[in-house]
Design a protein that fits this description.
14 strands, Rossmann fold, single chain, 18 helices
Length: 410
Amino acid sequence: MALLARLGAFSGRSATPELAAVPRDAADLRVTMVLAPQTAAKLDSSRLATLSAEIRVLDSGFAAFAGNAPLIRRTDLLVVQLDPDNAADVAALESFASGPGQRIPVVAAVENLTIAATRTLLRSSIADVLPIPFSLEELAQAVEAGRDRVNRAATGGGPAHHANIIAVHGALGGMGTSMVASQLAQIWAADRQVLLIDLDVQRGNAALYLNLKPRLSIADLIEAEDRLDAEFLRMVVERHQTGLGVVAAPADMNPLDALSPEFIDRLLDVAAQNYDLVLLDMPGVWIDWSAAAMQKADLVLMVSQMTVSGVQQCRRQLDVLEANNLGERVRLVMNRMTPGLFGKYDLSDAESVLRTKVHAALSNDYPTVSAALDEGKPVGQMKLKARIDKELRTLAAGLLQDLAAVEVGA
């Protein structure tokens, strides 16, 4: 319980559902409006749909938004209801704007707005101010001003690109976490820009399983500190024959405290701006920076096995994830499964003990998997029509569907 209490500060996705998500073209500005429930209830979603933007309305409070890293990455402009006389609320918004939200223009929506309050807010990090109630025209002007600011900051002339992030985490050591991460990464690299980051700075094997001999590693990114940017990241990334980019674990064991939550935030922000999909090969420990990485992830892929220790440790890992409001992001995979007489897997006992759904199962095909890892190739190239190849591809497709559902707020 002490571990749960220590990690409790890392709040995740809000349990309160989003009130409205007005889908637009993927290239449009993504606007998140964090409003008080009584204000949100008065909005006409049908009129919001006339704006050239994807509008998402939340009534769960600013703290819930600030703790939801995947939603922050999918926000180009933030409209937040604020009481300028509440020093704590203003301080919280300032802290967000100077930290994880520094790339996001913020528009403050204020009831009983005065000239003095407007001047005070505009002298801070607030980009614009809206009175409550505001008209559709006033909101449209704020959206267009935010669009101009985002366009100026983006190299391509449009809203900044932000990839999805999947954290691959083992219930305990030896579950096949790096195998699953490296094989999925190769599958996805066929039609998108994928980056695999090995965060296991003591026992990482991702580069080894891809038959790579990297000159640089994540240790070089750690040493870069404030110099860490897209160009520095590209210099460290090792390219696999599939086109997959890999940030390798260091050749020598590094102390776990060599990384920090601030480094993780910066690394993942830079990676997400330059790739379509980022995979994290996680270490089997919970520490402040690994918890921060989990919070940044859209999905957490938990890898376990149908053994007593695998199921027991998996349940403990799920307890920690659920305590941090990350339960909805978890997708559970049982590795090294043996099918029954009719070729099907019996997952009922595991699901009963774990009290959750097992989303996928991977067969125990040691010769094929071992050969693939030795040569750094997809398992499908080692054995035609291998069952595990089909299962991995099915898992990859299912995860992409789940990510698409996350994007539209399903």
